[in-house]
Write a structure and sequence with these properties.
The chain is an all-alpha fold. It has a single domain, classed as Orthogonal Bundle (Tetracycline Repressor, domain 2). The protein is about 75% helix and about 0% strand. It is built from eight helices and no strands.
Length: about 160
């Protein structure tokens, strides 16, 4: 995406963006930082809403992803899409995404462990693949009603 397109989406001008951000990369990195904070806040809010109920927190996070995939104009996981545009493995934006995804995974492991579920690390890996995979399938339109299928799959997996 060009800086002109970003400015247009922001209802701003290219000049205004460059007053706040030295480079396009700095702008993208800030956007990703805010996005990672929002995703972390979802898990924080679920912990407040469902204290000592880790399965409800896991289901709540799955519901957050499922709802996102159902949005009109859904274009896929913003992190995955960004990674596709950032080939440099040492890019600060790429490292930010990788750190976020690892932190999110460890939170899922902790919730699986707190719920007393068998092999919490393995289960968190399965849940991560279901969540990430659902986002890709929703983007490529390979299956309809992805969010519903995701919720059913996660509910079944957490019940077993």
């Amino acid at each position: 995406m060009t800086v002109d397109a970003i400015a247009e989406l922001a209802g701003s001008t290219k000049m205004t963006l460059y007053r706040h951000f030295d480079t396009k990369e700095a702008l993208v990195q800030e956007w990703l930082r805010l996005l990672t904070e929002n995703y972390s806040a979802v898990l924080d809010d679920l912990a407040i809403q469902w204290p000592r109920e880790p399965v409800e927190q896991l289901m709540g996070f799955a519901h957050f992803i499922a709802e996102d995939t159902a949005r009109v104009g859904y274009r896929g996981c913003p992190f995955t899409n960004s990674l596709a545009e950032i080939p440099d493995p040492q890019s600060p934006a790429r490292l930010l995404i990788e750190t976020h995804k690892k932190r999110q995974f460890h939170r899922l492991v902790d919730l699986c462990r707190e719920a007393g579920l068998d092999d919490p690390e393995w289960l968190a890996q399965e849940l991560t693949m279901l969540l990430e995979g659902a986002q890709v399938v929703a983007q490529n339109k390979g299956i309809s009603n992805v969010g519903e299928h995701l919720m059913r799959a996660i509910s079944r997996r957490l019940a077993s």
